[in-house]
Predict the 3D structure of the following.
Amino acid sequence: MNFTNQTLSQLLVLFLCGISCIRFFFFRTSKQDTLAILPSFALITSILIFFAYGISIFQVAILFISLLVFIFNFRSLLRLFNGVYIDRYSILFILSSVINFILTVLVAVAVIYFHPIKAKDKNLNVQKTQLRYSGSPSKGYKVNASPFEKITVNLWKIESTEHAEYKKLHDNERIIIFLPSKCADLETYEAFFNKLAYDGFTVYAGEIFSDEIEWFSYLKDSRIFRKATFLSQRLKDSAQADYFSSYKKSNFIKEFESLLKITAPSENNFVCIAGENLPKDVLSQVQADFPDLVDCYFDLSSVEDFKTPGFGPVENYSPLLCEVLQQTPDKSFYTSVHLATVLEKTVYFKNE
């Protein structure tokens, strides 16, 4: 199976929890219980994944299981640090371990069944460069070099390796600057980016988490909770979600302006700004503010047969969200390729 890094990390946590829960089957007594340290590693890894990828149903479940296993193994951990040997495992410990193991297996099965579909790029000759920036719209941005600085921009640059030499000699690239839906993330659009890069476009796609661009209260607006908050809002009432986006229209404009300043395209480049399900006039306003840089714009939700506008091409990425939206998962990546093709036609038409 072709798992994403997030799924592999989640399965690692569940594997550590599972081994810890069934160790009484194969670990002999009259020894130090060295495997009692596994729940600590599982809990720490689960917390790191939580901060790296944000909140989700599976991540909450995995965090809960790792915490549960850690609590039931805490006394074993203390005995290990005190050099105490195993005499026997108590009935209560064995019973709790079996229950935790069953929960671990159930969540592992669900994680594998609903794992995100990873975009294929091996035969496309495209490369992805990930850059992180600190700063704000008012003070500017700089490449994040210190682990103690807050990362406010997560930027992907996707380009074809076959066109690299041409780009070095010519300053007339076709550039797409893309702002993902707030209900999705960059990974959701990876197949879409790969198609554009394969066809010769340079794609810059970014997520911005600056304090100057406020969407919700502090906690909901954090990197961990923002996507889940937007997703919950849209699933509950899409009309209300659209109204909220319109109310925050200036935030979208600031984010596009930030991406344009960071990527700094040349006036000789043909630049198209793009996004999904954006409030009316956002893209045209950005083009009016940067008339010498922005040549055209495109909203993915304008594609008539795009079934999940506002959520990204979920049938190509998230089987779990497909279940919620009553869509069929599609590992052929048709939707992502189709959206990229329509965008390319728009650019070619405007560039004639």
